Amino acid sequence: MSEPAPQGRLFASLRQMLATMVEIAQVRVQLLGNELEQEKLRIAGGLLLAGIGVMLLSVGTVLLCAFVLMLFAEGYRLAALAVLTLAFLAGGVLVIRAGGQKLRSPGGMFEATLAELADDHSQLAPRE
């Protein structure tokens, strides 16, 4: 029969295992922090684009109405107003849609962190 491991080696082994687990947890938390920062930047960029789109729609509509009423003769005012208004509205809608697409997450939040945790789980699962 084999002899039990000496007490010192057992504690050293446990200490090493604990250090490894702490290091793995630290790496996972850092990865989560990186993904949180990426999400924050993505959301801020999308909101900025959406805000610019709303501003363009508002200012463009007001300026367009004033310009068209002053520029065109009596008979063409309605047609010119319709064309220019549609152009500004279409531009604003396109910018707002670009902002919305930027806010959508392509693969879900924290994709890399979840993949690493799944890999850790599969590595720790008992093998047959």
Keywords:
single chain; 128 residues; mainly alpha; 3 helices; 83% helix; rod-shaped
Give structural notes.
This protein has one domain. The chain contains three helices and no strands. Helix 1 runs antiparallel to helix 2 and helix 1 runs antiparallel to helix 3.
Brief rundown of the structure:
This protein has 128 residues and is an all-alpha fold. 83% of the residues lie in helices and 0% in strands.
Q: How many strands in all?
A: 0
Query: What is the gyration radius calculated from CA atoms?
Result: 30 Å
How much of the residues is beta strand, in percent?
A: under 5%
Q: What is the overall number of helices?
A: 3
| Helix/strand structural class | mainly alpha
| Amount of helix | over 70%
Distance between the termini: 26 Å
Mean pLDDT: 79
The shape is rod-shaped
Low-confidence stretches: none
Largest sheet: none
The run of helices and strands is HHH
Count of individual domains: 1
